[in-house]
Specification:
The complex is a heterodimer. By secondary structure, chain A is an all-alpha fold. Chain A has one domain (4-380). Chain A is 69% helix and 0% strand. The radius of gyration of chain A is 24 Å and the shape is globular. By secondary structure, chain B is mainly α. Chain B folds into two domains: 1-84, NADH-ubiquinone/plastoquinone oxidoreductase chain 6, subunit NuoJ (Four Helix Bundle (Hemerythrin (Met), subunit A), Up-down Bundle), CATH 1.20.120.1200; 133-170. Chain B contains six helices and no strands. Chain B has helices spanning 4-25, 29-49, 53-77, 93-112, 130-139, 145-166. The longest helix of chain B has 25 residues, at 53-77. The chains are: A mainly alpha, B mainly alpha. Chain A binds chain B through residues 22, 24-25, 27-28, 96, 99, 129-131, 134-135, 137-142, 144-145, 148-149, 152, 160, 164, 167, 171, 191, 391, and chain B through 1, 3-5, 28, 30-31, 34, 37, 53-54, 57-58, 60-61, 64-66, 68-69, 72-73, 76, 129-131, 170.
Chain lengths: 404, 170
């Protein structure tokens, strides 16, 4: 009873063996069944996420949110799905039909593919490949491709502009995010996600808080959520790359985005919050599933919290922040972590943890000083533009006369 | 009866070859680039079948995540040339066909003389860690340290060159 998933899998394996199938074909059947079960479970969670997202947004904006259909409005997503399914399906003139229809499927599929390597409990993990951390990066690349396809195939200038913005952002923020993932890899000395979880007797958010923060920011940008939602800036480009999509095709993008956010919550939990680890999770693996989803949901909530609290940034701010701040910062932290890890071989683990934490705090202090002085300079520029030399020539008529 | 590995191999190879053929026959450039992505993905799956997970993932990250996306970007920015109305073959095609057939014939000849085409791959030994072996090999002095460093310097030079080109001199 402690581990129903393994029990059922073992029972099924025995049953198929008794039927007289070859062992390698049984492995194929079991793998295919695993894919179907995991993907369906994730998609069922996704329907529920629509309700979660709407309810949480409502709380942040001092509203009630869906509250008519079913208890606490729980059946609202089902009504939403029915509405999306019976809407008119429009394909714009001049669109590349095949690519246009493939893009939303690919967008959702790549998110589900991420779940292949995430360990959900001590015994339940889709795949324990030895390059799990890199696999996540690779799948992200295919996600980028789906957005380009949507933007290009729609035959719409706004869609294309939105796709350009989104892809520029995803490619840029992939860099600090990938390097942030490397830090747990160094600490665990393995790229397998199950190993990373198992080696977290102390959560890595304690050993590597900076990497955790950078990963969270990178995830926010990768998701295209505020403050990085330039790709769907309503006042500029209407709705971005999915402007032409109607009905369930838009629904797939929407569901993909929600599930992506939740998946990044799960990845954050795996890399920095000990994944399924918790009290009694090793003896009772079913508890691990609960712990994992609690942590993932908490991080999903944090991602929503950021989204609904911050205003949108400008595109130059977005790129400068990534290339001139996040990337140098995380590269520094990566080199220091690698050197410290070599220096601290053989010391007791609690000293190792304390030293890593201390190093992160020292770096954070310097970051605070640097950012503080930069902010002072920027404020000065706004307060008294005459005193600071402006980099670009300003026409006399557009120069602000006086800022009081 | 074929093993599942062989079935998957034949399916993936067929898809890869078909996609590669579509790359050169499609007239729409963006579609050609997307077919190229499919072909590259097929190669990644072949790496997986050879239990070379790192190469598979690197293939996807570098070829699909970087090169293909860059190509699609470049093509999308020039929508006017995205449709290629010109002829798809030029006057030297018979020569090219002869050379291609000759090479194909040679490959078939060599594979026929080789007795291990139908053998199953040997199982990898326990505790075999190709990833850490690769990492150690790249930085140990008597293995690949110098090529690795030379490649790093080349990439650094390319990076600096990109910055210099994009530099907005005032």
């Amino acid at each position: 009873m402690a581990d129903p998933v393994t029990f059922i899998a073992q029972w099924l394996r025995d049953y198929l063996t008794n039927l007289g199938l070859a062992s390698e074909w049984i492995s194929v059947i079991m793998a295919a069944l695993g894919v179907v079960v995991l993907a369906s479970a994730v998609l069922l969670v996704d329907i529920f996420l629509v309700w979660v997202e709407r309810k949480v947004v409502a709380r942040f904006q001092d509203r009630l949110g869906p509250n008519r259909l079913g208890p606490f409005g729980l059946f609202q997503p089902i009504a939403d799905v029915i509405k999306l399914l019976i809407k008119e399906d429009i394909t714009p003139q001049g669109a590349d039909k095949f690519v246009y229809n493939l893009a939303p499927i690919l967008a959702l599929a790549t998110v589900i593919m991420l779940w292949a390597v995430i360990p959900i409990s001590a015994t339940v993990a889709g795949s324990t490949i030895n390059v799990g951390a890199l696999y996540i990066v690779a799948v992200g690349a295919i996600g980028t491709l789906s957005i380009i396809m949507a933007g290009w195939a729609s035959h719409n200038k706004y869609a294309l502009l939105g796709a350009f913005r989104m892809v520029a952002q995803m490619i840029s923020y992939e860099v600090p995010m990938v390097i942030a993932i490397l830090i747990p890899v160094i600490l665990a000395k393995s790229m397998t996600l199950t190993d990373i979880v198992e080696s977290q007797s102390v959560w890595y958010i304690v050993l590597a808080p900076i990497a955790a923060i950078v990963f969270l920011i990178g995830a926010q940008a990768e998701l295209g959520r505020a403050p990085f939602d330039l790709s769907e800036a309503e006042s500029e480009i209407v709705a971005g790359f999915h402007i032409e999509y109607t009905g369930m095709k838009f629904g797939l993008f929407y569901a993909g985005e929600l599930l992506h956010a939740m998946t990044f919550g799960g990845l954050f939990a795996t890399f920095f919050l000990g994944g399924w680890r918790g009290w009694g999770a090793e003896t009772y693996p079913i508890l691990g599933i609960g712990y994992f989803f609690i942590k993932a949901m908490f991080m999903y909530w944090v991602i929503m919290w950021i989204k609904y609290s911050f205003p949108r940034v400008r595109i130059d701010q977005m790129l400068n922040f990534c290339w001139k701040f996040l990337t140098p910062l995380i590269l520094t932290v990566l080199s220091i972590t690698a050197i410290m890890d070599k220096l601290l071989t053989g010391v007791p683990y609690w000293i190792y943890v304390l030293a890593m934490l201390l190093m992160n705090l020292v770096v954070l202090y310097f970051v605070y000083r640097t950012v503080g002085s930069y902010a002072r300079k920027e404020r000065q520029k706004v307060a008294d533009p005459a005193k600071v030399r402006v980099n670009f020539p300003v026409k006399a008529s557009t120069t602000p006369t006086q800022v009081s | 009866m074929m093993s599942p590995l062989q079935v998957i191999f034949i399916l993936v190879s067929a898809i890869t070859l078909g996609a590669a053929l579509m790359v050169v026959t499609t007239r729409n450039m963006v579609r050609a680039a997307l077919w190229l992505v499919l072909a590259l993905f097929g190669v990644a799956i072949l790496f997986v079948l050879l239990e070379a997970g790192f190469f598979a993932v690197a293939q996807v990250i570098i070829y699909i995540g970087a090169i293909a996306i860059l190509m699609i970007f470049a093509i999308m920015l020039t929508r006017r040339i995205a449709q290629d109305p010109g002829p798809q073959i030029n006057s030297t095609w018979p020569l090219a066909a002869v050379i291609a057939l000759a090479i194909f014939g040679l490959i078939v000849l060599f594979i026929q003389g080789w007795d291990k085409t139908m053998s199953t791959p040997p199982a990898l030994p326990d505790g075999f860690a190709p990833l850490s072996d690769l990492g150690v090999a790249l930085v140990s002095a008597n293995q690949y340290l110098i090529p690795f460093e030379v490649a790093s310097i080349l990439l650094l030079a390319a990076l600096i060159g990109a910055i210099i080109i994009a530099w907005d001199r005032k």
